User: What shape does this take?
Amino acid sequence: MLRITAVETSNAYTKLHVEGRLTGRSVEELRQSSDLHALSKGAALTLDLAEVTFADAQGIALLKDLKSRNVTLLNLEPFLALQLHD
Assistant: This one.
């Protein structure tokens, strides 16, 4: 299960707090939420990932894609940081 909460939002910036497991359907949920809250509007997006407990291959691929689109990824757990390292 994944929970996504907008903790800061404006026309130019959105910060989302993400908690839970980034797997299966939750990957698409995060993709849609990211697009809805910021990316489609051209606003800067930051994801606080401190509470993400696991990400499968699809979840890692999404985070890599978001990172390549200039999304800021904060508070990565070491297991995520290793997998996202270029």
